[in-house]
Amino acid sequence: MDRCVDAHGVEVDPLPMAEHDILAGRPVAAAKTLGEFGDTEVGVWTLTAGAVRDVEADEIFVVLAGDATVRFETGESIELAPGVVVRLHAGERTEWTVRSPLRKVYVAAG
Q: pLDDT tens-digit profile of 75-104?
């Protein structure tokens, strides 16, 4: 990683998404790893409008842009908007409903 990166403008690479994980729309996920520190990865991740399901990694992220809801299989849900900081735990099952393209900076354990 360069010493300084514009997280809003960094180019991201498309990620494969299993068809059975797409719940609505035609969402596209993309990401770019910015650096690694031991077993910890720092990067930028995006998801366009639509709904998907996922199994989470152990991570903390900060929303840079977008409007979305994350629902957990426990019934809990959180609203995502710029500035929101979220902690996810490895193995959590989630559904992401994205209303406007989501962009986040994440720190994830390997």
A: 999 999 999 999 999 999 999 999 999 999
Distance CA 15, CA 28 (A): 8
The Cα–Cα gap between 88 and 71 comes to: 12
CA atoms of 12 and 24, how far apart (whole Å): 22
108 three-state secondary structure: strand
Interstrand relation of 59-72 and 77-80 (parallel, antiparallel or unpaired): antiparallel
Q: How far is residue 98's CA from residue 108's CA, in Å, rounded to a whole number?
A: 21
Chain center to CA of 50: 13
Q: By C-alpha distance, which of 72, 77, 71, 68 is closest to 103?
A: 68
pTM above 0.90, yes or no: yes
First to last CA, the chain: 18
Amino acid at 98: V
